[in-house]
Amino acid sequence: MATESFQSYLVTGGSGLLGQHIVKLLRSRYPYAPVAVFDLVPSDQDEGVRSFVGDITDRNALEKAVKECKATCIFHTVALLQGPLRDIQMNVNYGGTVNVLSVARVQSVPKLVFTSSASVVSDGKAQVGIDESLPYPPKPFDVYNETKALAEQDVLHANGHGGLSTVSLRVAGLFGPGDKLTVPGFMSMLVAKKTHIQFGDNTNLFDWTYIENAAHAHLLAAERLNPDHPKFSEVAGQAFFITNGEPIPYWDFGRELWKAVGHVPSKITVIPRSVGILIATIMELVSWFTGRPAVLTRFRIMIFCTTRWCSIEKARKALDYEPPVPLHEGIRKAAECWQTHQAPPNN
Fold it and tell me: Residue 144 catalytic?
């Protein structure tokens, strides 16, 4: 929409994977709109992007950035996926979001797009084609899910208070060029020559989201948070699942990545889920005694073997969201990027 060109955007976590792509898309779609980044490290985006270095847990630093860039829309993408202590994740994922909401209200920021996770409703059990009507589980699957769920609830409750309109995007299985988690995780199996290993029977469908599609969804949500947009009432105060809309068996994703760089496993060794849990339990005990990180955990076995995919019909209708990049194309691009920039020599 034309009104978006008159916005001033601040992307928290703008130096991260999703943040960088949101900034890039903003610069492309609204070339005359001011864009700023707030992150622990300076932004390496083009000269037209203002960079504020600070910690999301530092409310004063955040407020200074919001005030100086005169933000009218905040994309809050900061999240700590793992931490040595529960308190650290709580402080960043939940406390940081509380700071963003507080600053947004004090500085009269009218729009906030929050990056949530599809896992906020996960309890570790199979989820087949779930939609946004599914409630938060009584017992969260892990600390990350717990902290993101708490943050999302605050974001949605803040909608309509103090002139602030909010929306939460529950992204699932994020991956793409520059990815430091999903793609490297699968590619580490290739480097270690362990692509023949498969935990579970691979009948469990799993959701993935290509990074450019996730960034696109964030801009769509921001556009619809304008009160004059015809779909404003369908979006403000709502949560939306965002995926590629193409769930596939979990291990098929990794095999497509490997195939894209020229590798096809000659055989598959299937390790039943129950055996995987036993192996992971032993590794965790060894880790506890030695202080060294466990190569395999029960949490990872659950991810490998559990069906988890959701419907994006609500996003299609309210956000007009259709993933621009098909899954197979996203996998190819991500694999090529890994091979060019991250693969070890002589791989």
Answer: yes
Amino acid (1-letter code) at residue 89: Q
Would you say residue 121 lies in a domain? Answer: yes
Instruction: Please identify which of the residues 9, 30, 144, 250 carries the catalytic annotation.
Output: 144
Neighbours of 97 (CB within 10 A): 27
CA distance 180 to 17: 8
Give the separation between CA 314 and CA 343, rounded to whole angstroms: 38
pTM: 0.94
Q: How far is it, in rounded angstroms, from Cα 197 to Cα 181? A: 19
Burial of residue 289 (number of CB atoms within 10 Å: 0-12, 13-18, 19+): exposed
Its domain, for residue 149, covers 2-175+208-247+309-325
Of 137, 117, 192, residue with least CA distance to 344: 192
The per-residue DSSP string of 141-157 comes to SSHHHHHHHHHHHHHHH
pLDDT string in tens for the chain (347-residue length): 446 768 999 999 999 999 999 999 999 999 999 999 999 988 776 678 999 999 999 999 999 999 999 999 999 999 988 766 789 999 999 999 999 999 999 999 999 999 999 999 998 899 999 999 999 999 888 899 999 999 999 999 999 999 999 999 999 999 999 899 999 999 999 999 999 999 999 999 999 999 999 999 999 999 999 999 999 999 999 999 999 999 999 999 999 999 999 999 999 999 999 999 999 999 999 988 898 888 888 888 999 999 999 999 999 999 999 999 999 999 999 999 999 988 787 65
Q: CATH number, domain at 158?
A: 3.40.50.720
Rounded to whole angstroms, the Cα distance separating 134 from 122 reads 10
347 within some domain = no
Q: Using an 8 Å Cβ cutoff, are 213 and 242 in contact?
A: yes
How far is the C-alpha of 276 from the C-alpha of 302, rounded, in Å?
9
> 157, 215, 168: which is closest to 314 by C-alpha?
168
Residue 281 inside a domain? The answer is no
Please tell me whether residue 163 adopts helix, strand or coil conformation: coil
